[in-house]
Amino acid sequence: MLAITNATLILPDRVLSDGMVLTDNGRILYAGHPRAIPEGAQVIDAGGLNVGPGFIDVHCHASNIRCGVDPAVYATEHLRHGSTSVLATLSYGTERAERLVQAHRIREAMKEYPSILGIFSEGPFKNPNFGAKAQFFTDPTIENATDLLDACGDALRMIMVSPDAENAEPILALIRERGIILATGHGSSSREQYAMLKRYGLRTATHHYCASGDYTHRGGVRTIGLDEFVDLDDDVYAEIIPDNDGRHVKPEYIRLCLRCKGWQKVLIVTDATAMIEHPIARPDGRFSFLPHDPDEVDVKFTESGGLSGSKLTMDKACFNMKRHSGLPTEIVWRMASEVPAKMLGLCGKIGALMEGADADIVIADDNFNVSRVISKGRPV
């Protein structure tokens, strides 16, 4: 049994000063006002820091190694930054045969590493004109889609299909039939194409405001594109990659999205294709990663200078989101935990400090400098 005391709790409905959390057998037993600590419990004094649910990164390709190359290293490195749940994200920028091999590796790793929640396949059925590495374009055929879905099996929780991908509708029907969450992005969209996605259960927009269109002006009138359809759709969630300089999403667009959709439909992701760390030795022999550097270059580029994911971890992404949005710590925290849990349909299991939920917990200050991480009741 584990008891976390002297904590500022980020609960689903409020922030509670001087709270405590009790966990046992990997689950949360209690989160609220202080009570007697059970005999024999391991005690962690949070020192007044924020104690909240672990972060859930639904779009994360790599740490310093790709998720499909070494899933164990990938999951472990992100776990130390508070990501107690990740969707190992297969990239469209991978050869088709290698993508299937990587899916198998991830499925095997999930048996031993519970922070790997499943697989997100970003594409490969997309418009090749949007995003990097177009040379790895995969024909959007039902055969290729079936091969991918079979390779991922029950581990595949989410897949992205562009609204203007060729031959999209049969693939969308297969995705719906198998009960997989549908995401969209990497393309432009007409009203008719967006309506088609909605018919097949569109749930979320992949890295909203990034690698999507159409932003052309025709006759002096701004056209409507995929991002605008998502902003106006109260039922659809939106991923935001909050890097330091707003290279993926300008801070003004972040605030516009929040104004349109409310924070309850906006989730923070890293889209990490690498990782930056600043380990600092502590007197107790552990390491922290303080402080966050607001001037750090936390994005990746292609050889031609285009964006190719980020070097973010979720603690740094939350720090950036707070800077860009002006939202308080507890709301940003929920955008990295509660909101993705709801999008995945896992509310009550992960993403909240509540009785019966998995004991995935992060202890951090108001700027998301992580002090401790607990995964399924075990300190990391």
How much helix, percentage-wise, in residues? 25-40%
User: The biggest beta sheet, please?
Assistant: 8 strands, mixed
Indicate the radius of gyration in whole angstroms: 20 Å
The chain-level structural class is alpha/beta
Instruction: Give the overall form.
Output: globular
> Can you count the helices?
10
Describe this entry's structure for a reader:
With 380 residues, this protein is α/β, with parallel strands linked by helices. Helices cover 25% and strands 28% of the residues. The protein is built from 10 helices and 22 strands. Strands 1, 2, 3, 4, 5, 20, 21 and 22 form an 8-stranded mixed sheet that branches. The chain has an 8-stranded parallel sheet with strand order 6-7-8-9-10-11-14-15. α2 links the parallel β7 and β8. α2 runs parallel beside α3 and α3 runs parallel beside α4.
